[in-house]
Amino acid sequence: MKFKMSALLLSSAVLLGACGGNGSADNSDDNSKSNNTDNAHKSSIALKDVSTDPKDAIKKAQDIYKDEKLKKISFEKEHGDWAYKVEQQNAQKREESEVVINDKDKKVASKEKETDESNSTKKEFDYNDMKSYKDAIKAGQKKFDGEIGEWSLHRSKDRGKFVYDMDLKKGKEKHEITVDAKTGKVLSDERDD
């Protein structure tokens, strides 16, 4: 019985020692964890902090699903991390896919493929035929100088052309801006309250 009690006390002491600290320990790890947590929870990102070029994300998605064409690409928070969501399709086979690629390490976070009866070749495009996302963001920032909340490039049902839709944020203010993907002209700028 004494042995069990001693073992229990010793185990408890080791556990408490591992969980506790002496207060004089270096807190730099705690501070860096806090900063990483702050960045992970931040709802916008500066253009200069985007790590992966959309062309690289598209290439990775097209390497996975080789017989499909691009129909939409977006940049947004996905499970707390900034990521590209690349949507593709093969209109003849009535298939579509979605590949999520992490911005920071370019790893595939998820991928899926399914049948879709409504695929149309009108949605397909080549990213190289469009203004770059940087040019589109910079055009939007001339209207409202905010950081990127998210953006997407796709064929607009309302406008019948390819557009960049973006949310730019500064403090508590947010603007939804649409830029023509071919010309780089800002088509709309709406403050979102």
From TrEMBL:
Signal sequence region: 1-25
The alphabetical list of record keywords is:
Signal
Annotated source species: Staphylococcus argensis
Stretches for region Disordered: 20-52, 88-122
Source domain of life: Bacteria
- Compositional bias segments (type: Basic and acidic residues): 92-122
Q: Fetch the InterPro entries from UniProt.
A: PepSY (IPR025711)
This one is known as Peptidase
Question: Which is an annotated Pfam family here?
Answer: PepSY
Q: Where is the PepSY domain?
A: 132-190
